Backbone:
């Protein structure tokens, strides 16, 4: 108002009049946020759309989404930028929920409770399974954002030609193995697929394996404080025995390491009839599978189970009090039911709060595509993903053990005992 | 008369000026050398003697502890052994292939321009892109290699997924990638050799093979030395394909020293140990280059 | 049996015909020089004999053996390259022994030959040096040594002296010639330098546009060129060539009324005269000419005289010192006359030849022209 009057008074000083606006615009809080792209789809476009929508609702805050590659790249870039300091360092990041120890040990995290100043009841709105990987030393260090869990996809056409009920997923371990046998051409020449099953084991085999471990009764592979692992428990060893036997004894799964990235491709090309992979692939499979497919929970053994996965929102210590308030505002906005529902529908990630599933939009979506609910329904059996101090090093030790057993280099028990010993050696200094 | 000014002071003034000019001239190069080579090298050496700082445990001097840790580290031994195999496989094969391709495209054959371009293409391609192409070659079931095996009635091989083949599969990519690059140097060197030398050898009764071995090959000596030094450096530094193909797996079967350094530095965030590993890598490369200059360089004919 | 024979050998590169049905026979022990302007096919001819090029047609035999389809190494030739083509990574001794080692010559014979050859060429002190440490002349000797050390009877040389300075070239010419004679070698030698060709060869092959123009001894070539091309190409200054026409009283120099004392018609013929065969007459007889340029050389002087539209070169005694612009009369003896057919460029029978019908009215031995 004031400015408009001023302009009316003197058009000639328009340039000078613009100056106060610039100064006022300078008060806009800028929040660079690093984010990875880990699934198919126009993620960058969606993120930019959210930033614009948020800015419209909150003109005083401008969020800058900065694409930083894979999860791994994002953490590398974020930590490097944070240590280097400077204006371009991120104030927030979307990073793996299990990287909590990595960031925590570098001392760059602001606990969410410090942002909310007492009012953090809203955190209870998320599924507890998704919050499990956020809690450490009595505080919450990240907010669930793009979360996933593994599910089983099956090729209904292949099921039918193998004489199986195309609408029913294998319910338990024995059934999955029996189904897989009938779907493997070496055992059943009439099978439409070469292999019955693929559980990918390249890169990060621990994640899918964790599903088996939980089902075999090893609910946690690591203690909540991240200083102890349970790699050589009888339950863990039993789970690995089962997984190794699928390829080496039952011969229903390809031997050696099965590539994570090409497994959906194998599924589309009828090379395998069933695959385990993330629910984040749902949209991808829906688009590319040239046959009707089913989505099911992972089969149960002693119990049902699946790990959670995916990324959370982190806030870094290089923020001012103002910026922290702005960051909280953004986090609450982007995890509100409407945005959460939209994010889930556009990407295939699981909407992180029950409230989001109650939105009309998601309800409509679910009516047309009931498979999308499988991952949500599986959440009540979900357990936190493996996460420890020196997380990457410990999971690498574990991955190596799993790969050694899957490729027949070592027996499961031998491999896992060695992994446990190595993990103990790494984690020793954190046990104080 | 300025011309007959006393000589001595003039010379002295000139020397001082010379020094200033000399330093000014090398200053830009020196600056870059210090900032981008000397300082990082020295900093790495110092860092390798300190523990990795963590938020709750600041860095402190630990002497050679990282190097002791390395001796006891089975992964380090494994990646080192892998790297030596990788070098032993990729260096002779890529150099030999480069020479063979250069000889072929140096000869008067039809489609020579196309062949030259085709051989050079892998060099222009980023290694990540090349690795993605090879990922398709190696894919079990419908990858190019398995399709070929199937045609021949042979069972498929999980090239990247089996410890026995993963390292060699990665080595092949390096050979494919490097050979075209080295070919260019050999081709340039071949074109520098006057044809009359080969003709003189032919008149004296030398067979093609003899002429190649006794005349061409010795004259390619400096190129071979240069290419070998590059191949050794490549064998320890060209690891980008691992990011796409195997991530060092299965169970470190295809892990290489530089990739392990990357893992240690940027996945495990253990900067101190990574610095110590880097010191070892640099030492290996320095030794290799030195050995080549001493042993091959002495027998190499420079024109 | 000839040492080298070429029987209608042709070789072309694309459209360019480098040698066009060339036939040639060289007796053993001859020092044959192939001479011609650049691009005439002389180097191709040499490379065909060496086996470095394969002919498109024709046969090549060496000492009676058909080598057309044999690789260079089996032709038992030595060769000296223009660039010497010494192996830069090998010492002088290794360069010399290269071929002997290949042919598995016994060690003591190798040693003997190396000693003999290096003594012969004065290379004893240089045996351990690399080519880059030698002077041009020394490199030339090594290249020569490599060609002859194996006792090859036929040696090919491709402009071997062109990279040497003038003085050294002169010395080497003499040495080459005596070497060739001493070892009874057949030499095929390519050059574009006519002085070198005439000085070193005992047989000169003139080539032009892929064809042989003339094969002759140097003196025959000089005195009796078989074609206008050879007449123009050989000699410094070259032969004066005067096209003839028909005057009222017989042949005249075309474009002038001046008669020449030659029987038969004038038109269609060219009169060739070597400069040293032209004299300045004292008796007022001869062709009128005006001195246009003079090059004083001490013992003699070369003058260029204008005769109508033509320039006539004459070599006169230096003491005469004609002045520029001076008017003279020029004359020559009957033996000096060369006649060519203007259309074909070929040589016509000599006016002195015993064919009687060519001689009609002339009796005087000195054949001078009369002014009309």
Residues:
């Amino acid at each position: 108002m004031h400015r408009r009057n001023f302009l009316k008074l003197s058009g000639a000083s328009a340039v000078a009049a613009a100056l106060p606006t610039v100064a006022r615009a300078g008060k806009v809080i800028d929040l660079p946020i690093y984010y990875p792209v880990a699934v198919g789809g126009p993620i960058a476009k969606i993120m930019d759309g959210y930033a614009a929508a948020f800015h419209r609702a909150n003109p005083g805050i401008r969020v800058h989404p900065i694409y930083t590659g894979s999860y791994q790249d994002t953490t590398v870039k974020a930590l490097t930028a944070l240590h280097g300091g400077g204006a371009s360092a991120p104030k927030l990041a979307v990073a793996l929920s299990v990287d909590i120890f990595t960031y925590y040990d570098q001392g760059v995290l602001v606990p969410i409770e410090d942002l909310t100043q007492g009012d953090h009841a809203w955190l209870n709105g998320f599924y507890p399974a998704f919050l499990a990987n956020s809690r450490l030393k009595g505080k919450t260090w990240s907010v669930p954002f793009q979360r996933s869990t593994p599910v089983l996809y099956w090729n209904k056409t292949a099921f039918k030609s193998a004489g199986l009920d195309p609408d029913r997923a294998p319910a338990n371990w024995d059934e999955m193995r029996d189904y897989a046998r009938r779907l493997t051409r070496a055992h059943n020449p009439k099978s439409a697929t070469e292999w019955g099953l693929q559980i990918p084991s390249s890169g990060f085999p621990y994640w899918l394996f964790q599903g088996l471990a939980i089902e075999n009764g090893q609910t946690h592979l690591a203690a909540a404080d991240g200083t102890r692992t349970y790699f050589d428990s009888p339950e863990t060893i039993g789970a690995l025995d089962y997984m190794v036997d699928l390829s080496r004894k039952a011969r229903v799964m390809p031997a050696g390491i099965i590539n994570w990235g090409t497994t959906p491709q194998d599924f589309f090309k009828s090379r395998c009839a069933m695959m385990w992979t993330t629910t984040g692939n749902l949209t991808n499979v829906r688009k590319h599978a040239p046959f009707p497919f089913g989505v099911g929970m992972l089969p149960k053994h002693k119990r049902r189970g699946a790990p959670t996965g995916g990324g959370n929102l982190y806030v870094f210590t290089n923020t001012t009090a103002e910026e922290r308030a702005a960051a909280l505002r953004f986090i609450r906005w982007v995890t509100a039911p409407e945005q959460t529902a939209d994010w889930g529908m556009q990407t295939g990630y699981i909407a992180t709060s029950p409230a989001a599933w109650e939105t009309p939009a998601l309800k409509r979506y679910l009516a047309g595509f009931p498979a999308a609910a499988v991952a949500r329904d599986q959440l009540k059996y979900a357990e936190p993903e493996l996460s420890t101090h020196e997380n990457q090093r410990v999971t690498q030790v574990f991955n190596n053990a799993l790969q050694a057993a899957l490729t027949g280099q070592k027996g499961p028990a031998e491999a896992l005992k060695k992994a446990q010993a190595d993990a103990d050696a790494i984690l020793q200094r954190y046990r104080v | 008369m300025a011309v007959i000014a006393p000589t001595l002071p003039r010379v002295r003034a000139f020397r001082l000026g010379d020094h200033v000019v000399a330093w000014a001239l090398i200053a830009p190069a020196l600056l870059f050398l210090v900032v981008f080579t000397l300082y990082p090298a020295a900093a790495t050496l110092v860092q390798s003697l300190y523990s990795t700082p963590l938020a709750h445990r600041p860095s402190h001097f630990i002497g050679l502890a990282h190097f002791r840790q390395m001796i006891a580290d089975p992964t380090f031994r494994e990646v080192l052994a892998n790297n030596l195999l990788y070098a032993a496989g990729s260096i002779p094969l890529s150099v030999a292939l480069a020479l063979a391709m250069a000889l072929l495209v140096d000869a008067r054959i039809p489609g020579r321009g196309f062949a030259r371009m085709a051989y050079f293409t892998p060099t222009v391609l980023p290694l990540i892109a090349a690795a993605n192409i090879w990922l398709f070659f190696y894919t079990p079931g419908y990858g190019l290699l398995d399709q070929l095996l199937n045609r021949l009635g042979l069972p498929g091989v999980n090239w990247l997924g089996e410890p026995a083949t993963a390292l060699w599969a990665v080595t092949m990519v390096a050979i494919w990638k490097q050979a075209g690059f080295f070919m260019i140097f050999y081709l340039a060197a071949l074109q520098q050799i006057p044809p009359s030398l080969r003709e003189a050898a032919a008149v004296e009764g030398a067979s093609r093979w003899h002429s190649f071995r006794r005349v061409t090959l010795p004259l390619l000596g400096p190129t071979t030395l240069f290419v070998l030094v590059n191949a050794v450096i490549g064998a320890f530094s060209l690891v980008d394909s691992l990011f796409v193909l195997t991530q060092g797996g299965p169970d470190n079967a295809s892990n290489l020293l530089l990739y392990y350094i990357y893992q240690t530095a940027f996945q495990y965030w253990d900067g101190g140990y990574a610095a110590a590993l880097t010191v070892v890598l640099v030492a290996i490369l320095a030794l290799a280059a030195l050995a080549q200059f001493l042993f091959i360089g002495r027998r190499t004919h420079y024109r | 049996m000839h040492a080298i024979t070429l029987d209608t050998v042709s070789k072309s590169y694309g459209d360019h015909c480098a040698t066009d049905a060339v036939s040639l026979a060289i007796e053993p022990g001859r020092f044959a020089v192939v001479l011609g302007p650049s691009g005439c096919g002389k180097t191709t001819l040499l490379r065909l004999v060496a086996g470095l090029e394969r002919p498109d047609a024709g046969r090549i035999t060496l000492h009676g053996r058909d080598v057309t389809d044999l690789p260079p190494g089996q032709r038992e030739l030595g060769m000296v390259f223009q660039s010497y083509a010494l192996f830069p990574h090998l010492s002088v001794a290794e360069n010399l022994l290269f071929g002997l080692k290949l042919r598995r010559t016994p060690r003591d014979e190798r040693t003997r030959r190396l000693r003999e050859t290096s003594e012969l060429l004065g290379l004893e002190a240089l045996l351990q040096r690399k080519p880059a440490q030698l002077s041009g002349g020394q490199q030339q000797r090594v290249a020569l040594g490599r060609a002859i050390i194996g006792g090859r009877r036929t040696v090919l040389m491709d402009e071997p002296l062109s990279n040497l300075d003038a003085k050294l070239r002169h010395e080497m010419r003499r040495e080459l010639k005596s070497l060739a004679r001493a070892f009874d070698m057949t030499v095929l030698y390519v050059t574009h330098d006519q002085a070198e060709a005439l000085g070193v060869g005992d047989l000169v092959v003139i080539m032009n546009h892929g064809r042989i123009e003339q094969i002759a001894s140097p003196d025959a070539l000089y005195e009796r060129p078989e074609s206008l091309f050879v007449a123009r190409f050989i000699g410094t200054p070259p032969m004066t060539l005067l096209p003839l026409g028909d005057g009222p009283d017989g042949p005249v120099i075309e474009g002038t009324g001046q008669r020449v004392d030659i029987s038969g018609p004038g038109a269609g013929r060219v009169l060739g005269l070597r400069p040293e065969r032209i004299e300045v007459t004292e008796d007022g007889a001869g062709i009128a000419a005006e001195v246009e340029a003079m090059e004083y050389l001490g013992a003699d002087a070369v003058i260029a005289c204008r005769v109508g539209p033509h320039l006539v070169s004459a070599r006169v005694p230096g003491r005469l010192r004609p002045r520029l612009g001076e008017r003279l009369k020029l004359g020559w003896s009957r033996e000096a006359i060369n006649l060519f057919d203007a259309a074909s460029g070929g040589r016509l029978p000599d006016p002195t030849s015993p064919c009687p019908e060519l001689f009609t009215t002339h009796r005087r031995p000195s054949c001078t022209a009369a002014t009309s």
Chains C and A do not touch (no CB pair under 8 Å). Residues 353-372 of chain C have pLDDT under 50 and may be disordered.
